[in-house]
């Protein structure tokens, strides 16, 4: 249809060079104006014609108006039905014409075309014939006066519409022999060879920005981990290797001077491995020193006073904290000191996953990420620990800190850390800290005058605070909002100096 209209339009323009009004032309030729406009725009895009728009307001038939224009108005349909029957019960009129009967019968009564017997409810015509003025008016909207148009509008048979006609003139590029430019090269064109004689639309590569890349987006947890890593490196810390999730009970508990009867080592709190079930990489001399420290103590400590089990120490598990990584790193520092006789102060941190056999709920999973750091040096203790913590937390937006005495099996003294949240406007627990006990450090071979201060915080808790996440499934699970992950910026508290 569009191709035929294009051909007819080109033939007309070849003979007449243009026309004043496309709407008038359509009425003269019996063309569909919408199809003609499509052909005009096609030639305009090829710069073969110039088209000047002519905007005018008009009227169009509603869906109901189209039906009445084709079949007649409701009142005439009702009259014709009753006339054809001679007379008809009201129920028969309703059954035959449906919704039209309800609309038309009232108008028939108003026009006195039909009468209804009140007793029998039988409808009878009172005139011989009627003229369907509504149908005629719907067929010739352009010739109606305002009063008639308003009446049809009130009956919702017509609706206002805006029409854009065009004044068209041919340009210097007009050619009656021109073909419509094709946008796509198809396999059929190639097989038949018609591509060589086909006119293709030119590519417009001016100011083309292309489709934006939808590459990967960092998960909120990864954003926080990355920022924490940068902060700790700015403070001079080195990152420890944390890729060993399966750990021995020795490094996870015993090396930290945590007794084998401690409730944290129960199966209800720890995931023990079935395969491999035993660790083999524990240095024998270090194992013996840890055993002696647990059973008898040393350097002023009396130990835990129980029979230490090597079999229990070699059980494998999913590490319950990254402090096991800290223990391995400190042991290597002790080895270096024993070999060289020189101790070098060190600052280390780790950010990785740990596992706890705990009850799952809306805010807890069986695995989470832990951020941990320690400093090994001479002449350091609680004052230096508090100073480092104030420095660290001020860099991530927490400038007000409080410390509360606490108990940890492998640190003494120990402190819980509370920070004033500037957005929540309240004090919240932000971490745990302490000074590693001599009973933990001496078996590692570190000098007696070296102390280690350490702290740890939960990464998920911090992420939830920053991104206003109330349930863990909003952070991990199929219910996690991917759209939010894509659009969220790096969420951060105000710097203390701001």
TrEMBL record:
Belongs to the class-II aminoacyl-tRNA synthetase family. Phe-tRNA synthetase alpha subunit type 2 subfamily. Its cofactor is Mg(2+). This is phenylalanine--tRNA ligase. GO terms for molecular function: ATP binding; metal ion binding; phenylalanine-tRNA ligase activity; tRNA binding. InterPro entries: aa-tRNA-synth_II, aa-tRNA-synth_II/BPL/LPL, Phe-tRNA-synth_IIc_asu, Phenylalanyl-tRNA_Synthase, PheRS_DBD1, PheRS_DBD3. Gene3D superfamilies: 1.10.10.2320, 1.10.10.2330, 3.30.1370.240, Bira Bifunctional Protein, Domain 2. Residues 222-489 form the Aminoacyl-transfer RNA synthetases class-II family profile domain. Keywords: Aminoacyl-tRNA synthetase, ATP-binding, Cytoplasm, Ligase, Magnesium, Metal-binding, Nucleotide-binding, Protein biosynthesis. It is an enzyme of class 6 (ligase). It comes from Symbiodinium pilosum (Dinoflagellate). The lineage of its organism: Eukaryota, Sar, Alveolata, Dinophyceae, Suessiales. One of its GO terms (cellular component) is cytosol. It is found in: Cytoplasm. Pfam families: PheRS_DBD1, PheRS_DBD3, tRNA-synt_2d. GO terms for biological process: phenylalanyl-tRNA aminoacylation. Its EC number is 6.1.1.20.
């Amino acid at each position: 249809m569009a191709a035929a209209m294009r051909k007819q339009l080109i033939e007309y323009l070849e003979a007449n060079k243009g026309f004043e009004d496309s709407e008038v032309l359509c009425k003269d030729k019996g063309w569909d104006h919408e199809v003609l406009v499509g052909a005009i725009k096609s030639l305009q895009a090829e710069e073969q014609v110039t088209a000047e728009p002519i905007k005018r307001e008009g009227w169009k038939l509603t869906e109901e108006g189209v039906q009445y224009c084709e079949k007649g108005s409701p009142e005439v349909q009702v009259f014709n039905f009753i006339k054809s029957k001679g007379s008809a019960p009201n129920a028969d009129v309703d059954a035959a014409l449906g919704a039209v009967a309800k609309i038309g019968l009232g108008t028939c009564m108003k026009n006195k075309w039909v009468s209804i017997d009140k007793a029998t409810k039988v409808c009878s015509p009172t005139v011989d014939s009627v003229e369907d003025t509504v149908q005629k008016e719907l067929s010739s909207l352009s010739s109606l006066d305002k009063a008639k148009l308003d009446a049809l509008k009130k009956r919702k048979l017509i609706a206002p519409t805006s029409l854009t006609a065009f004044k068209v003139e041919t340009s210097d590029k007009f050619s009656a022999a021109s073909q419509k430019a094709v946008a796509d090269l198809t396999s059929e064109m190639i097989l038949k060879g018609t591509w060589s004689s086909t006119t293709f639309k030119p590519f417009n590569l001016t100011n083309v920005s292309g489709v934006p890349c939808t590459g990967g987006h960092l998960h909120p947890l990864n954003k926080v981990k990355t920022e924490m890593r940068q902060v700790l490196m700015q403070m001079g810390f080195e990152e420890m290797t944390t890729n060993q999730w399966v750990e021995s009970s020795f490094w996870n508990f015993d090396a930290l001077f945590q007794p084998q009867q401690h409730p944290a080592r129960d199966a209800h709190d720890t995931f023990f491995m079935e395969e491999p079930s035993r660790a083999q990489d524990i240095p024998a001399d270090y194992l013996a020193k840890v055993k002696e420290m647990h059973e008898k103590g040393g350097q002023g400590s009396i130990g835990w006073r129980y029979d230490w089990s090597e079999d229990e120490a070699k059980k494998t598990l999913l590490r319950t904290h990254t402090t096991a990584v800290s223990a391995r790193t400190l042991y290597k520092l002790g080895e270096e000191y024993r070999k060289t006789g020189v101790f070098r102060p060190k600052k280390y941190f780790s950010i990785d996953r740990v596992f706890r056999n705990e009850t799952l709920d809306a805010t807890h999973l069986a695995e989470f990420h832990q951020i941990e750091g320690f400093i090994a040096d001479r002449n350091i203790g609680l004052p230096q620990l508090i100073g480092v913590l104030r420095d660290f937390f001020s860099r991530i937006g927490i400038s007000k800190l409080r410390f509360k005495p606490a108990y940890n099996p492998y640190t003494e003294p120990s402190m819980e850390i509370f920070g004033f949240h500037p957005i929540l406007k309240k004090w919240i627990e932000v971490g745990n800290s302490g000074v590693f006990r001599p009973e933990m450090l001496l078996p590692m071979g570190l000098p007696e005058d070296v102390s280690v201060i350490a702290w740890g915080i939960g990464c998920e808790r911090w992420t939830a605070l920053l991104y206003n996440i109330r349930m863990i499934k909003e952070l991990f699970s199929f219910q996690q909002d991917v759209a939010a992950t894509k659009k969220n910026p790096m969420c951060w508290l105000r710097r203390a100096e701001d």
